[in-house]
Amino acid sequence: MRKFIKGIDASPGVAIGKIFLYEEKELVIDKGNVEDTDAQKKRLLEGREKTKEQLLVIRETTAKKLGEDKAAIFDGHITLLEDEDLFEEVEELIEDDQITAENALEQGIEEYCEMLANLEDEYLRERATDLRDIAKRWLYNIAGIEVADLGSLEANTVIVAKDLTPSDTAQVNVDNVLAFVTEIGGKTAHSSIMARSLELPAVVGTGDVCSQVEGGETVIVDALTGDVIVNPTDKELEEYKAKRDAYLAEKDELRKLKDMDAISKDGVQVGAWANIGSPNDVPGLLRNGAQGIGLYRTEFLFMNNDRFPTEDEQFEAYKSVAESLEGKPVTIRTMDIGGDKALSYMELPEEENPFLGWRALRVCLDRPEILKTQFRALLRASNYGQIKIMLPMIISVEEVRKAREILEECKAELRAAGVAFDEDIQFGIMVETPAVAMRARSFAKEVDFFSIGTNDLTQYTLAVDRGNENISNLYDTYNPGVLAAIKLSIDGAHEGGIPISMCGEFAGDEMATAILFGMGLDNFSMSAISVPRIKKNIMSLDKKECEALVERVMDMDTAEEVKAEINRFNAIHFGK
Fold first, then answer.
1. Rounded CA separation 99/36 (Å)
2. Are residues 56 and 160 in the same domain?
3. Residue 297 among known ligand-binding residues
4. Suppose 262 and one of 75, 215, 402, 538 were both cysteines; which one would form an S-S bond, judging by CB atoms 3.0 to 4.6 Å apart?
């Protein structure tokens, strides 16, 4: 029987295949008492060791397929797995209550997860989700139940599941799997991010899809609109084959833009750059025709370590990227730890609001040795390419000046040691807070460039925790207040005589290209796979028409009105 199911388009594409219904094997936990508690503790430890081995293999596979920044997810998983406090708690449950390893682990994990899931902090809530993923694998290993291998599915498979964890998605063999559909999740879920990196169509948030389908049924996944059609008609199959072929043909056409500049119809050029997390991401951005790097997230270099990386280790990573870009701009953000990112070897305080707390540059200015090591590595690497230094989480001119003083100290040290570096290295800041956006012209006098981080700017402007599901509907970069903050930032940069980029998710939003171009954004930096489409959009636009769109939109009062007006404009210029 034909079924139509609606979800969220999490990773673009169109697929037609056979359903593989991914359901967890039932785990029956013995709730009875045991006499030999030492044997249960041994099972607990052996299960943990096997789980760690599996996660290390998955991490290595992910690094090869998707790069170090995606693989870093599993470093966090392994850190949670090795949490000795949790392990000792479970051992105590085994000893005190004389219960099985599975029973004790389930109780210990659930208690810990419940506590984390009820906290307001996004990072800690995400830890609860990760811990449940790890616990499931750990429990199965203790019980001797084989964990499903998604790497060996048949060709033309569409995975349908309640959810796919990062470790599930990382195992997917893209030669055989065409797409996936899940009951829960959103565009920012780890599995969705990984699907986009794999260029695998994905529709998420479909509700009770698993109870509506059976394995082997034919399914259409339209991840351009979020539509799923089970047992489609012959007519629908023909229509969607044509839609799939048209989409793939468009992708081929977009590849032809690889070596072309992003120049509008009236001759205005903007930068089409990409964001990366490690040197492993460089081939992808070059393959997609990115003309530079607007954001190199160096925190992954810190997170993939059991100690602070040395100056030489950092230097080699930055030098590698600079050389690969062959003179194109490489914007490297200083360590952005805190908020939703932690280091196992650095004790960060427990805070009620870590996104508003001791994080990013605040940590580095309080611990100047961290910043100094990074600055020296960046300066040394600047001799091998066009490196630009960027500071995150700025709220005051004093912070910028203090960081610049440290940078000048590092320059003096390297000069004295006879070490070559770019004397004119560019020094810029992220625009992530209303404090900077509202006084952009003043900050522009202090630096060489700006880059707007829309994820945090939206969060801070609207006072909306973007990870809180209860208010996720309020998180909207098209909110007139956020658009006003973006325009203030762009105007302030230009009045101060400096260029401005955007490296937040909004830069890769096809719907937003025209309004950002009309506002005067100089460089768009995004996920590498978005670069060709944004280039194509720019080539279809006229600057004056986009400026007129901005004037109309800035007079509107609601995000709905803004989107409707932008959609009308885009329908004319992009045909969608």
1. 9
2. no
3. yes
4. 538
